[in-house]
Amino acid sequence: MAAETGTPTTLTLKSNDDELFSVAESAAILSVTIRNMVEDGCAGGVIPLDNVDGKTLASVITYMNGISAIPADEEKKKSYRDKFLSDKDFETLADMVLAANYLNMSCLMDAVSAKIAQVMEKKSVGWVRRKFGIENDYTPEEEAAVKEEHKWTFEGVETDDDN
Amino acid sequence: MAIELEKTPSSYLPFDIVEIILLKSSSVKSLLRFEKVCKSWNTTICDPAFIRKHLKKSENSPNNNNLFLSTYKNSTQRFSLFKFEDSRIHAKRIEENIHYLRHYTMRMQRRATLVGISVLHHKARVVNPSTQNVMYFEGPPTFRVCELVNDHGICFDAITDDFKVVLFSGMKYAIYSCNNRSWTRKPT
Fold first, then answer.
1. Which residues in chain B touch residue A95, judged by CB atoms under 8 angstroms apart?
2. Which member of B8, B10, B21 has the closest CB to residue A53?
3. For the segment B67-78, what is each residue's pLDDT rounded down to a tens digit?
4. How far apart are CA A18 and CA A54, in angstroms?
5. Which residue range forms the structural domain that includes residue A145?
6. Does the structure's ipTM exceed the value 0.90?
7. Residues in chain A closer than 8 A to B25 (CB atoms)
8. pLDDT in tens, B148-182
9. Which ranges carry the F-box domain (chain B) (predicted)?
10. Do B81 and B165 lie in a common domain?
């Protein structure tokens, strides 16, 4: 119907904390999950996205709109992605990588996971354990042996209370 | 005094996503450091399948090249590595890695694509500057001691997942397979 009148189709997305967002279908179908729903004809009403919170969804929609406004120019898209992710902290990036995975958006998934890898590069083992919620399961002897094996990799690491 | 609560993501990342992130790391140094995070990270990072996938990704990265050549200076017995890119040798030395060599084990991991070789007195060593690993091996048995190695190079054979060292001496050449740890001599 909307297509006949020439106005772009708009979808309504609902986050898991019940926030509603309107987004142009042409931008939203960057998500394969949403595209499949549209193609299956189940995108008529509100599309519930149970694994994404409102704050993250708002960010993802900003990205969808931004990237789909750029014509097919990989260089420009890449520089948009770099700029879009440049001011995001680790927690935001972690939420976004989960959302990108759930929404099946490969371009966002690639960019965010690469960004997280880049953020981690100079971080200490302690920082990584905290941010990823990992418990150290080495015995002190095992840990010392692993550290000894690659001693040089602990040089130039950002200072942290636990290297 | 206010206690600053550390922010955490809404939920911690599942391991399959962690693996995707680790594969994106362009720093082998960081990956090796993160073996210490926990046993499951260690298992993943050391897994040959992971190393292969990581290697494949770094081959596509513009920062990496899959061939390094080296020359050695007789006088000092030091050697430098040269970047081989777009069929041209860039005399960009990455010698800063070399001083580590003495301290590291003779274990060679097929990780990342940066590998160099030096040939000294019929003994050769292959160095992986990404992991700082070094592997020593004897020169090809068919080359006489007095024979001069004119040139040498190293390449990664993606089909057999093997690093191969090629030495030239006069009209002969010999190929060393790092996987099989053996030489194959070829006539002209």
1. 9-10
2. B10
3. 343 444 433 334
4. 8
5. 125-154
6. no
7. 117, 120-121
8. 556 666 666 767 777 777 776 667 777 888 788 88
9. 13-54
10. yes
